[in-house]
Specification:
InterPro entries: ConA-like_dom_sf, Intracellular_Lectin-GPT, Lectin_leg. The chain is α+β, with helices and mostly antiparallel strands. The protein has two helices and 18 strands. The strands form three sheets. Strands 1, 3, 4, 6, 12, 13, 14 and 17 form an eight-stranded antiparallel β-sheet that branches. It is elongated. It binds 2-acetamido-2-deoxy-beta-D-glucopyranose and calcium ion (CA).
Amino acid sequence: MKMKLEVSFASLTFYCVLLSCVFAAWNTKDYLKREHSVVKPYQASGISIPFWDFTGSVMITNSHIRLTPDLQSKTGAIWNNVPCMVKNWELQVHFKIYGKGKDLYGDGMAIWYAKQPLTPGTVFGSMDYFHGLGIFLDTYANQNGPHNHGHPYISATVNNGTLHYDHDRDGTHTELAGCEAKFRNLDHDTHLSIRYERDVLTVSTDIEGKNAWQECFTVKGVRLPTGYYFGASATTGELSDNHDIISIRLYELEVPDEKEEEDRSKIAPAAAFFAPPRDHVDDPPPPMSGTKLFLIIVCALLGVCVCVIGGVMVFQRSQDSSRKRLY
Ligand SMILES: *[C@@H]1O[C@H](CO)[C@@H](O)[C@H](O)[C@H]1NC(C)=O
Ligand SMILES: [Ca+2]
């Protein structure tokens, strides 16, 4: 009797642990799409990673895919070469960004769901005016002066090929939403989750070593076509960091009672809600030179003199006329 109790208690504990593990990670109905994922060990077949292409400074080791090393002027990217036909998905990215820089480091990493893979450019190593979704892990605050948020900063942009990513403003004028996230130089593992379900985009982080997702932001009304490609890119400039991908996992989400299937292959990426417009704060003007300041003061003094003299003349004339009227 005692024996039996112990066994059932042990098995109960076991099932509890198992269950909580499963629920913590993902819905049991959702399943991993191998053709859109990359996990260790990477080099299953010779020197290439199945389903993935890479460009630039990418280095693959047993433990990580390094997009850029902690060196200046590096750019690297990996791109899935199988277009994604899944409509509702969650992309989980295990990443690590770290480097020698204590106060100065950059520039950051982007996770993509985009139309044109393998196209280098100015947005964290990938093309500007992209079609699709970009999630930016921006480690360097380019904008001088007043800033609405701290860095590192995670933001999302949906683009139909018309929007320019403005680095000088850290992309805040084209973002849907964003949040601060201190994911850099941490000893524990750091994860990002990008969930796209029924046109709702939710970005979450697991960066505190607690093995739990914390919501960064949620945006409704996001329309993304099928047939685009997942990718990750990173870049360094004058400042640098190691930008590593440890794994990328794509889960297809089981979405019950979805309305009649809409063909999503031809639609343009669109978002109904953008972040509330921010003040376009200009950088403070350069300090005035001595001579310029002197000239301005002289002009101001002259202006005051003219006003005073003019005022006195008008006053005297009105005195004269009122005197005339009196007599
Ligand atoms: C592209 O997006 C811009 C801004 O969001 C919008 O004004 C424009 O109508 C869109 N164009 C197309 C072709 O969807
Ligand atoms: Ca930046």
